[in-house]
Amino acid sequence: MGAEEEVKKQLSGFSERATISLVTDIGNYLPVIKGFVMYCNEAKINGIFVTCTIPVRVVVDQLGAEDINTENIHFIDTISFMVGSSSEEKAKTIYIESPTMLESIMLKVDMWLKKLKEGKKIVFLDSVSALAMHNDRALLSEFLHYFVNHMRGKNIQTLILSVAEQTPEELETVLRLVCDETLIIKGEDAPPDQ
User: Fold this and answer.
1) Is 190 within the bounds of a domain?
2) Digit-coded pLDDT (tens) for 21-66
3) In DSSP terms, which residues pair with 76 in a beta bridge?
4) Is the full-model pTM beyond 0.85?
5) In this structure, what CATH number is given to the domain that contains residue 10?
6) Closest CA to 128 of 162, 84, 93
7) Is 134 helix (H, G, I), strand (E, B) or coil?
8) Is residue 154 in a domain?
9) For the purposes of burial, counting CB atoms within 10 Å of the CB of 61, is it exposed (0-12), middle (13-18) or buried (19 or more)?
10) Domain housing 107
């Protein structure tokens, strides 16, 4: 079973309020994103996708090239301004100037949640590994703790992506502590878990 199918299958088995730490390797990064979007489409769930790794334009273009519909996905893009690719505005996208603006990420997620009043919702944070490159680890740990508990308080299913071998150990510990479940999607040639 491919990573896309595995993500779809696993997400459908979790509680609607679960907070899930999703750990993947570099080779499965894009298939995991595809699986998340396909899950939202099939389950008719509004997805809020916070991208801190690659610009939303790249995500939408790659998914579109594979005929994967992003109609149910609402984006928060924290990286486009920083890399100079935000000149082309995308529908259903809120831009933040930098992945260092953690409070703004929280505020924009709340903004989408208020706009999407009806139906099920899931928030996907991509990724802790990217945020760790731009933020102080103690500050990021505090943000993750607050973010997870804030979403839990709103009964919103939350998926937090981290890339194996790219996420500082103390942040992995925080995720294990605050998340309800851990989902590991790694390729066959990925190194075994420690």
Assistant:
1) no
2) 999 999 999 999 999 999 999 999 999 999 999 999 999 999 999 9
3) 50, 94
4) yes
5) 3.40.50.300
6) 162
7) helix
8) yes
9) exposed
10) 3-181
